[in-house]
Design goal:
198 residues; purine biosynthesis; 24% strand; 8 strands; GART_AS; transferase; Rossmann fold; alpha/beta
Length: 198
């Protein structure tokens, strides 16, 4: 049975586009919703251009009431009935109560070689640490930030003279390739980790 996938974004949605474009032909999943916490997110227009239903639930009116914001997210997801949720640059920290509802069914991509550099500013932190390699990880989402089982990683070498911007630019195509590969396996019931080298 084809799996239904909802993709949550906050910005331009480049990972969302890669995922959505991959879900065709014999792929075991199909996109059924692209949702954002920012009504102006550029990825929403891209999703509409691909004929994927979209929805924006602006987090700002909810202030610090994360439970109310997540209740609105949950209602929208229950309507779309996804089997899998892919966080693709969704810049809101989700509560344990919300993640528990989707345990084992929610994926995230993070721009570091987890367990290194959970949270923000990962490229700068890798450079500050003098790392010889950097990368990205796809993992299952759990209550702890950037902490669930790792389903895939992609690695690039850190070059002399690299900046956070050059690392991010070089890493992005690998993020796309990794997330696409992991989702295909995950939707087919395969949690064997994927490893890519750039």
């Amino acid at each position: 049975m084809t799996k239904r996938v909802a993709i949550l974004i906050s910005g331009g949605g480049s990972n969302m586009v890669a995922l959505a474009q991959s879900m065709c032909g014999d792929h075991p999943a199909r996109p059924v919703l692209v949702m954002s916490n920012d009504p102006q997110a550029g990825g929403l227009a891209k999703a509409r251009a691909m004929n994927i239903p979209t929805l924006a639930i602006d987090h700002k009116p909810y202030g610090k009431d994360r439970a109310a914001f997540e209740a609105a997210l949950q209602r929208a997801l229950e309507t779309a009935k996804p089997d899998i949720i892919c966080l693709a640059g969704f810049m809101r920290i989700l509560t344990p109560e919300f993640t528990a509802k989707w345990e084992g069914r929610m994926l995230n991509i993070h721009p570091s070689l987890l367990p290194k550099y959970k949270g923000l500013h990962t490229h700068a932190r890798a450079l500050e640490a003098g790392d010889s390699e950097h990368g990205c990880s796809v993992h299952e989402v759990t209550a702890a930030l950037d902490d669930g089982p790792i389903l895939g990683q992609a690695r690039i070498a850190v070059h002399a003279g690299d900046t956070p911007e050059t690392l991010a630019t070089r890493l992005l195509p690998l993020e796309h390739a990794l997330y696409v590969a992991v989702l295909r396996r995950f939707a087919a019931g395969d949690r064997t980790p994927v490893n890519l080298d750039g």
